[in-house]
Amino acid sequence: MSLGIEDIERYSRQILLQQVGGKGQEKLLASRVLIVGAGGLGAPASMYLAAAGVGTIGLIDGDNVDLSNLQRQIVHFTDDLGSPKVDSAAEKLTAINPAVQVETYHERATAGNIMDIVRQYDFVLDGTDNFPAKFLINDACYFAGIPFSHAGILRFDGQLFTTVPGQSACYRCVFGGPPPPGAVPSCSQAGVLGAMAGVIGCLQATEALKFLLGVGDLLTDRILVFDALKMSFREVKVKRNPRCPLCGENPSITELKDEEQAACDLKGAPV
To answer: Which parts of the chain register pLDDT below 50?
Structure first.
């Protein structure tokens, strides 16, 4: 895909970067990123990916815009209340960059539909606040061989890391399986600072852009943990678990399944 005059002007600040240039921008325009959850994390991530010129952005979310979403899900406005989140987000992304194609899936990600969707994309962002969904995304990306960015936020804390299937630790290597119901409070129970979604969602978008461009060091085999109260970041080193039930030496998980709903938003919605 060659750049036109308008493209050169729109993306000029990126094209000036030695690590991007015209060829890198062409890569972005030809790339496809899927965001599972058009909520707190997916909102800023999708907006920056659209602005950066990622050619196709997929959004999967079965929920409608609720008043309680607006404190952190910045892609949705007050006039969008009651609208499907994927439609509300798609409208804003197209307004930011009309050249970006937005593919929407107004449905919940399940074991029955996620593989067919994931396989169509180059990179996946997990923007959910739902433990079963996070493990489902992890498993689907592993089976499909698609890299993805995991992230989560709660109160004043956030974390994220990136998985490249077959090369780095997966979500199950680190966390095993979903916690028992009620073991971990959700954002709807414990609260979350709205700006936290912006910080972590933007970092997810950065990981996606780095992967698509083939530059820098991805957050593989390390978790980046953010404490907003202390305004500090720290890294936690992780590694592939040879006993991982998914990607280990003797895997027990060989197909997708929907886990029992555990601690998450009351509607199982994105953050």
So the answer is: 262-269
